[in-house]
Amino acid sequence: MASDRLTRDTVVARALELADAEGIEAVTIRRLAQRLGVTPMALYWHFKNKDELLVGMFDAVFAQLADAPDPGDSWRRGLRAMVTALVEVMRRHRWITGLKQTAAKRGTQNFHRATDRALALLTEGGYPPERAFQVASYLLNGVTALVAGDPSGPPGMSPAEAELWRRANRLELESLPPGEYPCLVEYGRLVAENPDVEGYYAFGVDLLMAGVEAMAPGDPVSPPASPAPAEPR
Questions:
Q1: What pLDDT, in 10s, does the model give residues 138-190?
Q2: What's the CATH number of domain 49-151+196-214, 1.20.272.10, 1.10.8.1310, 1.10.3210.10, 1.10.357.10?
Q3: Where in the chain is the DNA-binding region found (predicted)?
């Protein structure tokens, strides 16, 4: 590709492809220039350094949240749709969990848009601004932890490598002294070599949303009904 036809979006798109295929460590200015068929100096025209490129990649990933469905009929459904979309985006780009703290602090346009949208939904649910920001941060960190703990295995592994990784984890738990760690040993026996990954993520989203919905000041969840008093005898 000629350097005069190189655009910032093209550089970011190729960087995303490289990170998705080989991990974020594989993304270097020199490696990216080779893939694009240009000199490293051509990339510095668009990004001053690798950190700036990583922030651009982070922003491009969050741009994908713009396509998240918006049910529009309630803040609960809207927020759940947004959290679900965030999970799907992070699953496609699992390396982003390592960039979140650095890139989010730098601030990016699409990250700010997503955050503002989440705050608007939480405000509609009755959360005051300060609490809404805290809850939005909780959801972002919760989704990050959810994706980082994917039971299928760490990112970048082949299916065969991931299967060996899961088997090693199971054997490690099963080998613990059952008298000292009965629950861990029992869990080890239940760990499947082919885990229900979709079920894991569905439960994770339910768990995150349950806390947010239960604590919403403007739309509280009704407590369970008290049992009727016994008839006097």
A1: 999 999 999 988 988 887 778 888 888 888 988 999 899 999 999 999 888 87
A2: 1.10.357.10
A3: 28-47
